[in-house]
Amino acid sequence: MFAPTERNRTTQNIQFNSISHHPTCLLRSTAWSVETKTRRIYYQAKRPPGKVSVKFRERQTVPVLLEGIPTVWLVSPATILRNQQVELLFNKEKLEFVPATIKPRAISCLRVCYARTMDQTKLKELGLRLFEINAFKFGDFKMKVGINSPVYFDLRVIVSYPDVMNTLSELLTEYIRQIRVDMGVHLCGVPYTALPIATLISIKADKPMLIRRKEAKTYGTKKLIEGKFNAGDKCLIIEDVVTSGSSILDTVNDLRGEGLVVTDAIVVVDREQGGVQNTEESGVRMHSLFTLSYLLNVLLEAGRIEEKTVQSVAKYIAGAQIRSDGSFMKNGTKVVNELSRVGMSFEARADLAKCAITKELMKLIASKKSTLCLAADLTSSEEILNLVERVGPYICILKTHVDIVEDFSENFVKSLQS
């Protein structure tokens, strides 16, 4: 029996019949510095200590030593980044004890949070239902990041299926509670597909919601974040599908820019292409209801796809690990500039842009579907304003020559900006 205990709190018991025949459970852990004054949960093990090989999302194998009383330690500092999220999946197929030969010293302590396994029947049924309504499909698809993919997710279709929306929001709400993520004060869906999902979770969990606009309004209050909040409030992000995590990071940056605290994101599907690592580097832990690998296995077990499809997608995932800067990771090596900007969509270029002005320009080009820049070589402010009124919806940039505008004034500038 393992009994996770938290100092100054009630002991929580997890009943195991034996090490090799216990029910599946998920332990989500985050590495913390030993000196960090943070809340910690310590594991007491009434069994001989042993070393466990654990599979990471990035398919690294990392040894973890169960020292027994009173602490669980991380053994391999070379393969673990401080504060990197770890997933330990214990079941009779994947749990393997070997003699403990490495003694952990001065390694980061693990803050361990126990979560009961989600109802696998409901998860599998939802996965199959998503496939039935074409929320994801197989073929050859051009992705937002500029590369082709053998699988494509489009969760926008779920708004036409109330039963799917209800089931998904219920499972996500249950999942958030079970993994014990602090919902904080607010929820915020990444625009736009995640907005209806976040709305339903907000209602079911009785948590207020914020709405983040992709662009600030140019009229009225000109807000980027809609809703009532205070600086210092905590906000949990909700997202539908994650590839590189860039959309989550855009939302994180805007929320943090308003003084909100963001540490966690809940996603429906993780495509397992680097999103976990990229968000972790920005201080955000990503938790997914589904992974692409899990959905593939569900479809394979149900006879909806063939083994060769699973192998094809697995090969694609292994060769398409995308970093936040747009580079790829192949065989553990960073490949820079593999993506051609010419072949990328403007949305993808906006996600990868480091310059704030470039990012806004790429978004503007994408939304207006125009790359036109107009040079207004006119000498009258009235003429320029009349011209802008006619062509404004069709251009991205207006180039003026203020030195030749005979009646230039501050009001003229304000009129252009309004």
Explain what this protein looks like in three dimensions.
This protein is an alpha/beta fold. The chain has three domains: 2-115, no CATH class; 120-338, Rossmann fold (3-Layer(aba) Sandwich); 370-418. 29% of the residues lie in helices and 26% in strands. The chain is built from eleven helices and 22 strands. The chain has a six-stranded mixed β-sheet, with helices on both faces. Strands 6-5-4-8 form a four-stranded antiparallel β-sheet, with no helix packed on it. It has a three-stranded antiparallel β-sheet with strand order 7-2-9. It is globular and about 75 Å long. The protein starts with a strand and ends with a helix. Its EC number is 2.4.2.10, 4.1.1.23. Pathway: Pyrimidine metabolism; UMP biosynthesis via de novo pathway; UMP from orotate: step 2/2; Pyrimidine metabolism; UMP biosynthesis via de novo pathway; UMP from orotate: step 1/2. This is Uridine 5'-monophosphate synthase. Residues 371-417 form the Orotidine 5'-phosphate decarboxylase domain.
Describe the structure using short key phrases:
alpha/beta; EC 4.1.1.23; single chain; six-stranded mixed β-sheet; globular; glycosyltransferase; Rossmann fold; 418 residues; disordered N terminus; 22 strands; OMPdeCOase_dom; 11 helices; 3 domains; four-stranded antiparallel β-sheet
What's the SSE blueprint?
Blueprint: E1 2-6, E2 25-32, E3 41-45, E4 50-55, E5 61-66, E6 72-74, E7 85-90, E8 97-98, E9 109-115, H1 120-132, E10 136-142, E11 148-153, H2 162-178, E12 186-189, H3 194-205, E13 209-212, E14 225-226, E15 235-242, H4 246-257, E16 264-270, H5 275-281, E17 285-291, H6 292-301, H7 307-318, E18 321-322, E19 328-330, E20 333-335, H8 346-352, H9 356-368, E21 373-376, H10 381-391, E22 397-400, H11 410-417
Parallel strand pairs: 12-13, 12-15, 15-16, 16-17, 21-22
Antiparallel strand pairs: 1-3, 2-7, 2-9, 4-5, 4-8, 5-6, 10-11, 13-14, 18-19, 19-20
Helix pairs in contact: 1-2, 2-3, 8-9
